[in-house]
Structure formats: structure tokens, C-alpha cells
């Protein structure tokens, strides 16, 4: 039982926004997808839930517990979303309606997905979900409007809502970026606990290597539309194979103990998809660049249990 994305391509007209995306997450596993802004993390996540705008063309393999996600239609697709795979977004305010109490919103989600029970049972289920998301005083909090709650509590409500249908997998796209550091840590703890308790595969999207280190068991590193490296967290941190992964680790402020705003280990920026350089997309920023890197994109190679897309991995 797993969520698998392989050879994912997402394009808009002739521009490839994601060229080769890969994610693999088993039930109960904690996976991180990491990379700088513009690398294609959110598009990859949205493609799993089939939430991409129609203007984007998707191809490749997306399967969830053996089901071909790209073939789902109508009622089947509606049930698949939130019942099989649920999502939590960066900004909890955007997933909550400001005009309705948070309790009612979770009730609506339950009813939409076929909750059959009395009014009282419905309330009880919402309180139970709030407890699961470790919202203090849940009986009281169900009557609050989103603006009454702190950012951390709103994100917990969004998590409670995502759990409403007991999904097998949860994708969380930068769920802690808008929160301060202590709240961030608690939300990550909550996601870890839920992943274990509910045997839920959890895919966390982040740009922060410190978050990856704290949360994940398996890691997928994305750069300019490519998954450039994947492997277990231990292996990736012990010995990053790709120079980009190495740079991400070297410039993580929390890991090096020095606050750094940009990525001093890797100067430059992720290229626009319409302006991707020829050859390896990372070559203009790569400290190890050689002639061949400018000519053709490197294939993905397997090294033991890991995959890397580089002509000269650190191996
Ligand atoms: N609907 C769209 N039409 C055209 N280009 C898009 C569209 N959505 C995203 N893009 C582009 O695709 C690339 C990948 O976007 P994506 O949102 O997946 O990046 P990301 O890794 O999630 O970045 P961030 O860390 O900033 O959230 C970016 O260059 C973005 O500008
Ligand atoms: Mg994003």
C-alpha cells in the first residue's frame, strides 16, 4: 500500500513546469519533499489530488494503493479526495471560511462525505477530531470563528478537517511556514503522532532542511522540475550525493547554527521553467560543473537504495 508518483510531467503549453517528479510514500511513513521556491513541489502535490488547473497538462504515473489517479472521474474522484488522500495547505486561513464557525465547517466536511448519524453524533465526531488534532478545550473551540483563533490553532483545525474522512495519506504543503518556530515544532510533532496512530502516510513539503531532519524518514529533493535525489533521511544527511542537496544542507541556518538568509553555499536562483538552461538545470550554480553537464541533462541513476540525477555524484 503506497502513494507513488513516477516520471511526473506537468506542462503549460510548450513549457514543462515539472519535468520528472518522483515521490513514494508507504502507509504510516513520513516523507519530505524539499527544494527551493519554484522547484515544482506544490504542483507535484496538487497533481496527486487532481487539483491542478485545467490549463496544465499532466502525464506520468500517479497511483494510490494501486489505483491510477489520472483515470479517476466524477464521484470516484470526489470520494478519492479527502477519503484516500487529504491535504493541508500553508495558510490555514485560505482553507477556512471566515463566516462560519470552525465546528460547523468540519461538520459540513463530514456531511459532504456521507456522515450518517444524528446531530449529536455529528457534534461528538467533530469534538473527537479536534481532540485528535490536540486542540485544547474542543467543546468550546467548535463555536469559534477562524479569526478568533491563533495561526497555530487554525492550522490544527485544518488538520482536523483533513482527518475527517480518515485518509490513508496526508499531504501537507508547507504547513508550518506561516507559524513561529515553537508552534512549528508542535505542529510537526502532531503530524508525526498522527502518522503513527492512524497509520497514515504523510508527505510533508518544505524548503527547510531543518524541518526535513526533524520530520522525515525518506526524502525527495526537487530542483527546477526534477527530483534530483531521493533516499532515506539518514543517508541523505550522512552523505548527500547531489551537489544541490549538499548545498541545501550546508546553508540550513538551524543545522549550521548560523542564521543565513539565502543559500550562500549555492549562489543564484532556481531558473524559470521557460528559461531552464540546457543540460543539467543545476549546472550554472553547481560548484562541480564540468563540460558534459552543460550539454545534456543527467539521467537518474540508482546507487544502492538511492537515486540521484547527476553525472558526478559524491560517491
Ligand atoms: N498555473 C501555472 N501556470 C504557469 N506556471 C505555473 C503555474 N503554477 C506554477 N507555475 C510555475 O511552476 C513552477 C513550480 O511551481 P510550484 O508552485 O510547484 O513551486 P514550489 O516548489 O511549490 O515553490 P514554493 O516553495 O514557492 O511554494 C514555478 O516556476 C511557478 O511559477
Ligand atoms: Mg509551493
Quote the distance from N terminus to C terminus: 32 Å
Mean pLDDT: 94
Output the CATH homologous superfamily: P-loop containing nucleotide triphosphate hydrolases
In the CATH hierarchy, what is the class? Alpha Beta
Q: Estimate what percentage of residues fall within beta strands.
A: 15-25%
Spell out the key features of this protein.
alpha/beta, Rossmann fold, four-stranded antiparallel β-sheet, 12 helices, 33% helix, binds magnesium ion
Characterization of this structure:
By secondary structure, the protein is of the alpha/beta class. It has one domain (2-84, 167-308): 3-Layer(aba) Sandwich (Rossmann fold), CATH 3.40.50.300. 33% of the residues lie in helices and 23% in strands. Strands 6-7-8-3-9-10-12-11 form an 8-stranded mixed sheet, sandwiched between helices. The chain has a 4-stranded antiparallel sheet with strand order 2-1-4-5, covered by helices on one side. α8 (181-197) links the parallel β7 (169-173) and β8 (201-206). Adenosine-5'-triphosphate is lined by residues 12, 17, 35, 37-43, 53, 56, 207, 272-273.
